[in-house]
Amino acid sequence: MYSDCGFSDLHKDVYGFRPREMMMKNWQAMNAKQKETLWNCLCEELEENIKLSKIVEQEAVERFEARVADVISFGADDRQTALRWITGTEKFYHSQDVEHFVWEQGILFTDYGKKLIKELLDIVEFEEIEWA
């Protein structure tokens, strides 16, 4: 019912890396009930990780929105100007640089982050890469 490959995949989803050799040997030595117990524990831990990740992402969105609001309160006329000021010291050569900027804010994989990328692509100025 619980395959070695499935266990390895689940372990990677929970911890970010595949189980080491000793863990795999322990897994293979377990009976069906022990495997089910461990599997269920890993599934619960994965659910908790997902919940925590959503909280962290939401906090990052709120921080970035607060930053935009601060910049507007400092004199930017609107959101577009605030985003231009926030990104003004960055160098963008490609759309992936915009994605990297949004990733650095901790919001790349959120709906907000996807919308922000689209906004920034219309705002930032891309520089030419100089090849020496």
Describe this structure in words.
The protein has a domain at 55-123. It is mainly alpha-helical. Helix content is 71%, strand content 0%. Helix 3 packs across helix 4 (79-86).
The sequence of SSEs as H and E is: HHHHHH
Rg calc: 22 Å
- Largest sheet features: none
The helix/strand class is: mainly alpha
Number of helices: 6
**Average pLDDT rating:** 96
Contiguous low-pLDDT stretches (5 residues minimum) are none
Q: Approximately how much beta-strand content do the residues carry? A: under 5%
Overall geometry comes to elongated
Total DSSP E strands: 0
User: Helical percent range?
Assistant: over 70%
**Gap between N and C termini:** 58 Å
List keywords for this structure.
elongated, 6 helices, mainly alpha, 132 residues, 71% helix
